[in-house]
Design goal:
Bound molecules: calcium ion
Distance between the termini: 53 Å
Helix content: 10-25%
Number of strands: 26
Length: about 425
């Protein structure tokens, strides 16, 4: 529920946090893991304006104390994620107090600040398992139209949030370059595959949830409690080799086409920070009601979240010419057909156990109109209609040297604008077999 940490009038003594359009004002307070300049160790920090607050240093100075703060002195967020919403909310209230303009916190916390530009960031948690869902019906329909024009949406889509188990070992933090994968590729009409670098490399614009407290093997998380198991959200780019995918995906789903790299943004925005942007979740008239384990009265009021999403492309030539990155598309997470609580309830309903730090991605977030496609496969209709960039370059799929940036933010009346930062990755040439 909303509380005084969401007050849009709050200002911080960290002046960069008060700038218009800043992703990390005092109403946000996202968590990440960083290494200070010239240090070899890793610490948990909170982004505030253009700075990061070193929580271990703050605890060391006696500013904060207690069990939750001890968990925040570790080098990953897993132990803190396991604590649950009551502890997270208490920590958020204390951080908000300490960073407020005019409070006593400035004198004690100012020595614990450093510039984000000066630190290294890494994955904020040890990710034991990673699942990728398929929650945008607009993405599912448009991709389905390319594969099966006569029946784009498979019969199970409106009944369950489809997902596959991804590969946790190749989840990388924003800024990590991504090498073009090689694999088996069967060109159209060919009876035998060839082998080589993917010619149809794509990005996917997604959000992902980090799991908070886990559930015991054999137990299911009821949908009414599902969000208590979600620590927060980040951006996720599910890099995809469409040609490798097309040959390998039947009958067991994607494998090598997805597992070569998955990029995530370094800062985790808590569900509590997103509270002012909760919005109704609904089903189009005539669509089936979800089965009882996927349905809950509060979804109609606040099941969805109004998060604006965008993708920008900066090609090597655009950079050499000194031109800005080009906005390829925008969409909104509130358009997802399946919401966060349904993802958690569904993944655990068989008795599958989730663990703190597990990652549940939403799948490509595309909006209702064609321009709102969250990947090139949709925007270029399978490569048939290239995107023409302002310098005359064309893109059907990604080329070596291309840099893809995902962004997300929330804004609206009566609440402070908050952002997710960015998730960036550049494509390197294939390393070869
Ligand atoms: Ca995906």
């Amino acid at each position: 529920m909303r509380n005084d940490t969401h007050d849009p009038g709050l200002q911080s003594w960290v002046s960069s946090a008060n700038a218009a359009g800043c992703d990390f004002p005092i109403q946000n307070l996202p968590f990440g893991v960083f290494s200070p300049p010239a240090a070899a160790d890793w610490r948990i920090g909170v982004a505030i304006g253009s700075a990061v607050l070193d929580l271990r240093a703050a605890v060391g100075r006696g500013v904060f104390s207690g069990l939750a703060w001890q968990a925040l002195c570790e080098d990953s967020l897993n132990a803190y994620m396991a604590l649950g919403p009551a502890q997270w909310s208490q920590v958020r209230a204390e951080l908000s107090q300490g960073l407020r303009a005019g409070g006593a916190g400035q004198r004690h916390l100012e020595p614990c600040l450093m510039a984000q530009a000066a630190v290294r960031l890494r994955l904020p948690a040890r990710i034991g398992d990673y699942s990728d869902f398929f929650t945008s019906i607009h993405h599912a329909t448009r991709v389905g139209q390319l594969l099966r024009p006569e029946s784009p949406l498979l019969p199970n889509y409106k009944w369950l949030p489809i997902a596959y188990h991804g590969r946790a070992s190749s989840v990388v933090v924003s800024g990590t370059p991504v090498a073009r994968p090689c694999g088996q590729i069967a060109s159209r009409g060919a009876t035998e595959p060839g082998f080589g670098p993917s010619q149809r490399l794509d990005y996917e614009l997604e959000l992902a949830a980090y799991v908070g407290p886990g559930n015991a093997l054999g137990s299911a998380v009821p949908i009414a409690q599902a969000e208590q198991h979600v620590f927060g959200l980040c951006l996720l780019n599910d890099w995809s080799a469409r040609d490798i995918q097309a040959w390998e995906y039947q009958p067991l789903g994607p494998f090598l086409a997805k597992s070569f790299a998955t990029s995530v943004s370094p800062w985790i925005v808590s569900l509590e920070a997103l509270e002012p942007y909760r919005c109704p979740w609904s089903r189009p008239t005539g669509d089936p009601r979800p089965l009882p384990y996927l349905d809950e009265p509060s979804l109609a009021e606040r099941g969805a979240i109004d998060i604006r999403l965008g993708v920008w492309l900066h090609t090597r030539r655009l950079r050499e010419e000194g031109r800005a990155a080009v906005l390829l598309s925008q969409s909104n997470y509130r358009d997802a057909y399946w919401c966060l609580a349904q993802m958690v309830a569904h993944q655990t309903v068989s008795g599958c156990n989730l663990c703190p730090g597990d990652l549940l991605a939403t799948g490509t977030q595309s909006g209702p109109s064609r321009e709102e496609g969250g990947c090139l496969l949709e925007l270029t209709q399978g490569g048939k209609h290239p995107i023409v960039l302002p310098n005359g370059e064309e893109r059907r799929f990604l080329e070596d040297g291309d840099q893809v940036t995902l962004g997300a933010w929330c804004e609206g009346p009566g609440a402070a604008r908050i952002g997710f930062g960015s998730c960036v990755g550049s494509v390197l040439a294939a390393r070869g077999p």
